[in-house]
Amino acid sequence: MELVFSYKETRIYLSRIEIALLVLVMLFYFTFDFLIRVIFKLIEMPLLTNDASVLGLLFIILAFIFYTSSSKHKGWVKFYKYVPALLLCYFLPSLFNSAGIISGETSKLYFVSSRYLLPAALVLLTLSIDIKGIINLGPKAIIMFLTGTAGVVIGGPLTILMVSYFSPDLVGGQGPDEVWRGMATIAGSWIGGGANQTAMKEMFESSDKLFSAMITVDVLVAQAWMAVLLYGVGMRDKINAFFKADDSSIEELKEKMIDFEKKTMRIPNLTDLMIILAIGLGITGISHFGADHIAPFIEQNAPELKKFSLTSKFFWLIVLATTGGLILSFTKLKTYEGAGASKIGSVFIYVLVASIGMKMDALAIFENPGLFLLGAIWMIIHIVLMFIVAKIIKAPYFFIAVGSKANIGGAASAPIVASAFHPSLAPVGVLLAVLGYALGTYGAWLCAILMRGVS
């Protein structure tokens, strides 16, 4: 017997064995999480408090995932057919966080990886970018990105209207605890990023308690959707057939990037590695210097631009780092892609991925199940709108996935999803994510005004 999902010529078959395997993986995850919780939550502090120890653990986890995912053993091949390796890079650290072995709250690794490694990764990933090739992708990438933004903006008020019919208390609250204020912070995060989220908290005066709960909803719902997107990468041909999409331009760009890497490929020596690190970390240092001066200048002389995130240092850090990589892509330094520039950038990205996972508590949402329902409905509206527009314009799955994560996740997630299709495509995610930062606060502000109107 098989479970069959079909639509016209597209069919996805899941046998009873395959369904059972997926269920067992989920049961193992939550059972292991619960048991470890019981063992280690007996102590107040996490087991590992030294960030050097935590970093070592994260690298061991990443090495284990990469080693097993590249293994030819049938058991591992079967396992990774259904559980993407990238997904484990998020969830295994979250297990240790949920269990109290490590703590995403007390560790400084996320700050270090997001402020130092992320901009360096963006520089190295954009170093070999083919601007003309990206332009040749056509308008569908921008259309899907803007559709993702629209899905968040209209999804917020629609969620409040829908939930108010069967549970008005869930979308109620008084003063700073009004739910729409907390949802405004999610809108800021989903369209832009953490800087936009904080801006919404200050702008609409959400309480600290509500803000903390909404952060949990934000992270878990966004990562659940990312898990679905990553799972869909393996079925992209069937999904593209459903949308009758032509992804030839994407494949052409990917092949051009691969050809360039092959032409410039060489075994890196110590000098090559030093120069690659100098490029990534050097531009990161310049970007920090620029951000430290540009953001305060704008805040002092044009405070009204705060709603566009132009007073955020993190915004300028990402913009300057990406711009630096783009500029260097027109120079001879571009040839360092052949010595492994993007691979080093990918290492930085995966450290960031693990540190993000370390901040997740897999079962924390059960403390606020009602708020999770709001986030889930909101995300479903975003997804449905994305799929409707994709069907109309016949957009390939790559544009759906990257366009969505450029909104819901930004520069930390969009290049990761893009690189899941192929590492050479990461720059597309970077560029769209930067656009998301630019629109983040404005779109979230509009969403908040609409939510306040329907509350």
What labels would you give this structure?
mainly alpha, disordered N terminus, 73% helix, two-stranded antiparallel ribbon, 455 residues, 19 helices, 2 strands
Give a verbal description of the structure.
With 455 residues, the protein is mainly α. It is built from 19 helices and two strands. The chain has helices at residues 16-40, 51-69, 74-82, 85-99, 109-126, 131-135, 140-166, 179-191, 194-204, 208-233, 236-243, 248-264, 270-301, 313-328, 341-358, 369-393, 397-407, 414-421, 426-454, and strands spanning 2-7, 10-15. The chain has a two-stranded antiparallel sheet. A hairpin with a 2-residue loop joins strand 1 and strand 2 (10-15). Helix 2 packs antiparallel against helix 4 (85-99), helix 7 packs antiparallel against helix 16 (369-393) and helix 9 (194-204) runs parallel beside helix 19 (426-454). The termini are far apart.
